[in-house]
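In this section we walk through a basic example: taking a raw amino acid sequence and producing a predicted 3D structure, encoded as discrete structure tokens. The instruction is simple. Fold the sequence below.
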Amino acid sequence: MVKLERIIISGGGTGGHIHPALAIADEIRRRHPDCAIQFVGALGRMEMEKVPAAGYPIEGLWISGVDRSWKSRRNLAFPFKLVSSLWKAGGLLRKYRPQVAIGVGGFASGPLLHRAARKGIPTLIQEQNSFPGITNRILAGHVQRICAGFPGLDRWFPAERIVLTGNPLRQHVVDSVSRGDDPSAARTALGLQPDRPVVFVMGGSLGAASMNAAVRAMVEASESLPFQILWQCGARYAAESEAWAKGREGVVCKGFIDRMDLAYAAADVIASRAGAMSLAELALVGKPAILVPSPVVAEDHQTRNARSLSDRGGAVLLEDRFVVEQLGAVVRDLLASPERGAAMREELRAAARPDAAARVVDEIEALIAHS
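The resulting token sequence is shown next.
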């Protein structure tokens, strides 16, 4: 049996990169309790807070993306950041001597995986989306294995290196669904009333202005809502949104929810952006879902993600331009139609891949065995 002793995982920037990275780390730790797992992130990004909170050490690189506007002054610093990050990444590889370097996308994974590949260290990337991020597209020709969350990535990556694993989910979410957590207890833990329906609205880890506006419109359009709202507004909107929600009956607003298992257990209907990791969790959870693709992502890949579920009847696709006016009506329709909800639940669970983290770690072990 292959023994994992030293692993580096790099990347981050958003929850969509951080959550699968932590899921992979959790599965490695479950199989190999003595394995030293070291994370590498980008200074100032959310992984520098979220990874230590999950119990793993992290080092930061001075790295960021390039602004699309070539006139941006921020781009002047990019060459210096890149050189600094490549130099530090080399030092980290010498310090930690990993058996495998894993990239999950985001700025920090570029320098670390590039240096690891140059040094002959086995390398693997995990791509969450139907349209790959620029960092993983750049790395694809240099790494040995690509674990894909969606089919069809051979347009960008060498087909012979792709393994369709699905997107890794943290074990507490998988366990919550498996054991069927009590909705009433979950609602109480989140500060909600235990016996009223709950609509969970989340715009991603950083938040979505349109979905936040839709929540306010739902609340302000009715003197008494027939349901409660659990609202993840995003870290950058937390201060203003929490202030607005304070004292409003039936509305619980949080900038970021760490206990997503409780949030999913509490919900009757979920409205969400269509990021890859959100879809992976929603498929597993199997609650009626409203997907609102972000209109500002590369090649509209969230709409492609959403259609993978909506075309089979597993979710409702609601365009971002209509969300403020229509979200309340769509929510009411779903709550009033348990038969439709049951059909959606079946389609969602048929698309679920609860073993994705295990399959990624299988590939990591295989890389070491053949290196």
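Looking at the output, two observations stand out. Residues 78-96 form the longest helix (19 residues). DSSP finds 15 helices and 13 strands in the chain. In the next section we compare this with other chains.
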